[in-house]
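Quarterly update, task 2.4: DTB-bound model.
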Amino acid sequence: MAVSSAKTVADRLRHDWTKQEVLALYELSLSDLIYTAQTVHRRYFDPNRIQISTLLSIKTGGCPEDCAYCPQSGRYATGLEREPLLSLEEVVAAAQAAKANGATRFCMGAAWRAPKDRDLERLAEMVAAVKALGLETCMTLGMLTEAQAKRLKQAGLDYYNHNLDTSPEFYPKIIRTRTYQDRLDTLRHVREAGIHVCCGGIVGMGESRADRAELLRQLANLPRHPESVPINLLVQVEGTPLYGAPSLDPFELVRTVAVARILMPASYVRLSAGRTALSDELQALCFLAGANSVFFGDKLLTTANPEREADRRLFERLGLRPEDDVD
Ligand code: SAM
Ligand code: DTB
Ligand code: SF4
């Protein structure tokens, strides 16, 4: 990494993976797969460093979309209390606390299909204020137009999270209110505005291995790899259609992380939602497989995340150091 310019590295990244190639990676023995992923990981990253992001729900619940996994959809009775858009002061206070806890990136999420133009100025103020604290800024607000993406970039937005969630084939079983193409269009608007892309998906929704492989292939074959790739394990919330879905073999999560690492070697792969359901040992396997980012803090958007102290202990036991921790 030290001797190559960013451009030469980018030139070496592939965007032409075939279905067979990706499935063949999934089918390696776990040992061969982890060895390959580790080798790639070490070429691009310090394997003992972990990037930490903190999430804040800036507008909660009552979403018109029908995503079958989501506790925030207004269509399902999940008992979640709705909250309107937070004030600038509330957002800044949460960002200060996240920074004090070691986060380097602050991600603000809203339960919207898409932001309304009338909300844009408030959102822009939030971005500018969080950035002024010295944090990287990230938002996830649903679909964005070209003009909205440009306005947020101008305010200082570093990253935009918008997931493909699953394969194009499995997608209609999970979401009917927006298409796969809508998602690709938003990703293009974000890219063209010069904002870094955070894009991944969810495993454990009842999809097949071929669907997981195809999600990763779609991500890797985008014109540029997303800079961050969140791999979420479904958090089953009572009241959502996916509550009670058959649980995933945990090694499939490890394999998904490893294949993401191999296909998108220079991207941060984030072990995202679902960590409370994983043992320390399984999380360690995911880090060995190439995950190098997590959400840190007691809460994701509306559901639980491991407690900070438990995470600090885990990182210490594994010899993992947060990225802001300078020598
Ligand atoms: N409303 C916006 C949107 O959908 O783009 C932004 C927020 S939405 C909660 C962001 C992502 O969180 C979803 O795309 C999905 O991948 C993930 N997510 C939501 N509920 C989840 C759950 N129960 N388990 C795992 N991941 C979940
Ligand atoms: C992502 O891929 N995972 C995060 C973030 N992007 C916004 C959200 C996970 C949400 C889990 C369910 C909840 O807490 O509401
Ligand atoms: Fe709404 Fe986003 Fe949840 Fe879908 S994932 S229901 S768009 S908040």
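Highlight for this quarter: The chain has eleven helices and ten strands.
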